[in-house]
Amino acid sequence: MDCRQVQDAMKSWEKTGGLNDSIIPQLEVHIESCKACKKRYSVLLPFIFRDGDGESGLALALDATVPNLKEIKKKLLKTENKRRAAPIIIGALVMGIAVLSGVLMLFLLQPGIEEHLVQVEFTLVAPEARTVELMGDFTEWEKHKITMEGPDSGGVWKTAVKLEKGKVYKYNFIINGKQSIADPNSPYEVDDGFGGASSILQL
Fold first, then answer.
1. What contacts 24+ positions apart, CB below 8 Å, involve 36-44?
2. What is the pLDDT along the chain (203 residues), one digit of tens a residue?
3. What are the chain's domains?
4. Rounded to whole angstroms, how far apart are CA atoms 46 and 49?
5. Which of 94, 116, 125, 170 is 20 to 30 Å from 14 by CA-CA measure?
């Protein structure tokens, strides 16, 4: 028995109030093994057993403890029919929730980007410098965004920046707010387009 046959059987049960005993076991097996049908119809199985010629133990227990089983069955079927009658509305709601969830997840998971970041320490020996800044494509080549700390007793300026792994970055040091130099510790350089050089960092 497949999902279509189960649906037809449920419609028949709804109209006639009962099913052939030979169908009920097949119906039960499919509903228990199919996630979609189980979600839709498992709650109705006790009523189907009850309406058949042979009642299951579960159905008998329900019959003894729950009043107005017929009314409950009608309400369940009515709810099921309404659910099947509004696929477009449900689909729209699901899509809307999915979009909203996606936006919320994107917002909430922003801290998760940390997993793809690596902290890189930049150093420059410039004991005579008054200020040293770090500028690169990760600062959109704007000055004054990253000011390095120093100099220490060895004349070293330092700063640490979190950058995304798997990318290639270009950068320069800016000394005293004017002089742009490549990183002397980096073996890779490219023309900066202004007659100088920019250092390359590959993560």
1. 36/3, 37/3, 37/6, 40/80, 41/6, 41/10, 41/80, 43/76, 44/10, 44/73, 44/76, 44/77, 44/80
2. 899 888 888 788 777 777 788 878 888 888 888 988 887 777 777 777 776 644 444 444 444 444 444 555 555 556 555 555 555 555 555 455 444 444 444 444 455 556 789 999 999 999 999 999 999 999 999 988 999 999 999 999 999 999 999 899 999 999 999 999 999 999 889 988 888 999 999 88
3. 3-85 (no CATH), 114-202 (2.60.40.10)
4. 5
5. 94
